[in-house]
Every structure is written in structure tokens, then in C-alpha cells.
Amino acid sequence: MRRTKTRPAGVVSKQFIITENVYEFGPLLVGKNPDKRHDETVRATNGESFRITNNGLFDLRINFSLKSKASVDPNRQPCPFVFEPEFLELKPEQTEDLRVWAFPQEEGIFKDEIIGIIKDNPEPVLFPIQCSGSKPAVTMDHDNITFEKLLLDRTERKTLTLTNTSLIPVAWRFKGIETLPSEFSVTVNNGVLAPSQSAAVDFVFRALTQKSLKHDLTLEVSDTEGLNLNQVPKPLPVVAEAFDIAVGLNLPVMREGENAIDFDAVRIGEEKVQTFTVCNNGKYNVKFEFNIRKKLIRDIFTIEPMIGDLAPKEEKQITIRCNAVSEIRLK
To answer: DSSP 3-state assignment of 10?
Structure first.
């Protein structure tokens, strides 16, 4: 039996706490069958052996019982503790084990005392014991993964944090990963969380083709002892949209089938005007702006409007004026 002077921080499991004079089984998975207490794995998790030694000069018999069993209170807690044997007969300096198990059937803290009655001794021996019942429970810091509208060929990352809020280890997995569209990837899709432990899961969206996407994942959480005690599944929709900027210029059709604006010959000091249209072929509003880099060209050509907004499927006429103040040839 492990001992500790004071209760340490965090989860305490299967230790005798000296300052509290209690044996702490710690948090245990609810719902286990006490009839399986002799299974090796169950005994290692839910059981403990208390060594009983006869330090006297004479043979003794000690009978054991649970304090809770003697209570007539109808509102008393259900007793999760089981022990065997019911009595021990010991010769001087002989040592035997009293085996004790804890099998909580619901969540909560359970306290009891094993009472040892020694034959011909009026003073009972008390062994305070306690345990906690716990179920698997994991929280998500978001109830959905929603990406912003993303331009083609770009990538965005979202992080989901899972936290084990129960007092026992839990296993988790995302159901539906196998049918996740290729635009999405997930850094990890299953694992085990210790009590109070958190894990960060990264979701990555790559905008490959223009489309809207929605895929439903489900977070499944269960115990790690094979009891199939599951948390209610939690839906996790993953939503994204990839889009492209599609702005078209409808220029006059000139000689040899070229799309161009040809002012032909312009007299110095005279103004010539040409028009063309710009069209938003995409799904969302866009802004446009014309930029003439060279000062020489800016001095000759004027574009109206230089900047503007276009709603989806909207066309806007653009006027370009040519006014040369000296002889020049441009192409």
C-alpha cells in the first residue's frame, strides 16, 4: 500500500493519506461489475490489499463489516465497496490480506469505513476508505470549424482544442474522417487524454477549385478500459468556401482579331475617346483600379473611372481619352 503524508495536487489514486487517515481509491470508471473483481486487470485498477498482522501474544479472530451496511437511513449513498474475507483468524505475528474493491455505479464521491471487531476486544478497528465515480467527458472549445471565404490557391488553418473534463483517462476519435473532402486535412484524428489534459487539433483547408463545402464530423469519446461507456457523440460541422476573382475586360475587336484599344492617328491637341466594359463574372463584390505606371502615358491617356466597385454579374463602361501634346508613337 502506497502512503503519502498529505494529499498531493491533482488526481490521487490508490494511496493512504496519512493526515486524513483515509485510503483513497481515487477516481474510477462507473458501471463495472463487482462479480469480475478477481480479474487481474480489474484487481489492479479497482482493488487493494490491506495487510492485517496480529501483533499480540494470543490467537485472534477479527470480523469485518462496512459501516454503511449498518445504516438505516433510506437516503444513504449506495455502497460501492466490496471486501473479502469476512473474517480472519491469526496466530501471533501472522499476517494475512484483507482484499477491498471499489465499484462506483454513478458519479460522485463515496466514503465508508471498514469496521474490524476483534473477539474479546471491545475497541473496534476502523479503516476509512473513499473513491470517486467518473464517466468519460471531453469538451470542445468550438462547436464547428468554419473557414472564411478563401481565394483559390490559398490555405487557412483552424485549431480545435479538446479537453478531458473527467477524472479518468478517455479515448477520443473523429467519426467521418475517412470521407473528408480532399480540400481538408486534420493533424490528428484520435488519441487518449489523461484527466484535465488538453489536445490541439489543426484543421487545414486548401482552396483548390471554386466551390462551397460542408462535411459533418462527430466526436466520439469512450473509456479506456473496454467497458464501452461512451459520452453522447458531439457533432462537428466543417464548413468552407473557395472562390476566384473573375473580372473580364470586353475590349473592341480590332484588326487581325486582336482585342485592343486602337486610337489610330490622333492630331496633336485633339482628343479621341474610346470605351470598353469591365464585368464581374465572379460570385462576390470586387473592387477594381487602373494603374498607369509610366508618367509619359499618364500625361496622354485619361481613364474614367480609375477605380470602382462591381457587384456579381455587373458591367461598367470605362472611358479612355487620348490627348497628345507632342508627336509620339505608342504600341
So the answer is: coil
pLDDT digits (tens, 9 = 90+) for 257-302: 566 777 777 788 788 888 899 999 888 889 999 888 888 888 888 8
Distances (CA, A) of 315 to 151, 202, 247, 278, 285: 22, 41, 10, 6, 12
Contacts with 50 (C-beta within 8 Å, 6 or more apart), sequence order: 1, 23, 97, 98, 99, 100, 114, 127
Contact 47, 36 (CB under 8 A): no
How many angstroms separate the CA atoms of 135 and 157, rounded? 32
Nearest to 229 by CA among 33, 17, 25: 33
Give pLDDT tens digits for 200-233: 999 999 999 999 999 999 999 999 998 889 999 9
Strands 47-53 and 22-29: unpaired
87, amino acid identity: F
* Cα–Cα dist 299/322, whole Å: 9
- List the grid coordinates of 8: 498531493
**Which residues, in sequence order, are bridge partners of residue 46?**
none
* pTM, entire model: 0.78
* Contact partners, residue 56, CB within 8 Å, separation at least 6: 92
The whole-number pLDDT of residue 266 equals 76
**Hey, is 133 helix, strand or coil?**
strand
Q: Is there a contact between 123 and 110 (Cβ–Cβ < 8 Å)? A: no
CB atoms within 10 A of CB 263: 15
Which residues are within 8 A (CB) of 135 and not within 5 positions of it... i.e. 6 or more apart?
A: 29, 30, 107, 166, 168, 229, 231
H helix intervals, the chain: 40-46, 295-300
